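Long-time lurker, first post. I've been practising inverse folding by hand and with some scripts of my own, and I keep getting stuck on stretches where the structure tokens seem ambiguous. Below is the full token string for one chain I'm working on. Before anyone asks, I'm not after the true native sequence, just a reasonable design that respects the backbone. If someone could post their per-position residues I'd love to compare against what I wrote down in my notebook.
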């Protein structure tokens, strides 16, 4: 593969009235691998994973890493619009249309994992293979939770909230590592470099601060199970051995996947793509060449 195709290329498309950003590697004529980041993260956090993947000898790939709305270099929706799971699925469907691919492989981390799971359930014929990293779908909502969620959305909670600002890249990276100590310094610095913008108060995160608030989406546990049971493609369920995911109620859903394989990555916490990209590539490579 030439240098041109191994370098990340910024791309944009329009969906749902928003200008959305994604990063592309490889030749678009090849099989596509779509990567979707987690909450308050961005597309360039996949760089270390992609670099390790392209260094392997797998068949040629086209890779597209999406910035969900309100993240990275994608546009924020207006204040009257929220960040529901349905909205993120519109972004993912918009990218699929833009790429003009009949089918592809999906890889998602955390929030992104929940979104690609829901997408694969909605459009099983479009998804060849699925990789869910620290994810088995969104948190379920009890019926009694819905009125308060709706009230917060109607009240515009978080619309006026400002993101934290930092004087330097190093300070911002330290803030990431304070919350997620297993993320290496180089990865944290990289996350800041592509995930922040310069303001009069210092470096501020690019993501919409409303992303700190719970989604208005309200799927029940039985509805999420119904989504999972529509998925027929080979599915890798990846989790960090040093994280808390397996203690989560969502871990019990792993048995619902018809064609699922559970894989632990030792020494990793929640942010597997950031903490153990080479180990993750070895696992993902197995499903890509199968």
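-- Answer (accepted) --
I ran through it position by position. Result:
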């Amino acid at each position: 593969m030439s240098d041109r195709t191994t370098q990340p290329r910024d791309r944009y498309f329009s969906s749902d009235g928003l200008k959305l950003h994604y990063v592309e590697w490889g030749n678009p004529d090849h099989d596509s691998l779509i990567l979707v980041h987690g909450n308050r993260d961005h597309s360039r956090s996949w760089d270390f994973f992609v670099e390790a993947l392209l260094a392997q000898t797998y068949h040629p790939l086209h890779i597209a890493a999406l910035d969900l709305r309100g993240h990275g270099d994608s546009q924020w929706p207006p204040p009257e619009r929220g960040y529901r799971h349905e909205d993120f699925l519109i972004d993912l469907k918009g990218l699929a249309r833009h790429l003009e691919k009949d089918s592809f492989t999906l890889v998602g981390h955390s929030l992104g994992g929940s979104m690609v799971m829901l997408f694969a359930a909605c459009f099983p014929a479009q998804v060849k293979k699925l990789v869910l990293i620290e994810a088995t779908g969104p948190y379920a909502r009890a019926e009694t939770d819905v009125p308060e969620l709706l009230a917060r959305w109607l009240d515009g909670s978080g619309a006026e909230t400002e993101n934290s600002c930092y004087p330097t890249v190093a300070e911002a990276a330290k803030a990431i590592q304070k919350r997620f100590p297993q993320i290496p310094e180089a990865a944290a610095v990289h996350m800041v470099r592509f995930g922040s913008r310069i303001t009069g108060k210092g470096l501020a995160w690019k993501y919409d601060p409303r992303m700190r608030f719970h989604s208005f989406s309200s799927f029940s546990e039985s509805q999420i199970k119904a989504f999972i049971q529509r998925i027929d493609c080979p599915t890798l369920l990846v989790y960090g051995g040093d994280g808390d995911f397996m203690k989560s109620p969502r871990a019990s859903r792993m048995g619902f996947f018809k064609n699922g394989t559970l894989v632990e990555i030792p020494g990793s916490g929640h942010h597997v793509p950031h903490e153990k990209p080479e180990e993750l590539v070895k696992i993902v490579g197995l499903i890509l060449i199968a």
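A couple of notes from the structure itself: The CA atoms of residues 64 and 135 lie 20 Å apart. The chain has ten helices and eleven strands. Happy to go over any region you disagree with.
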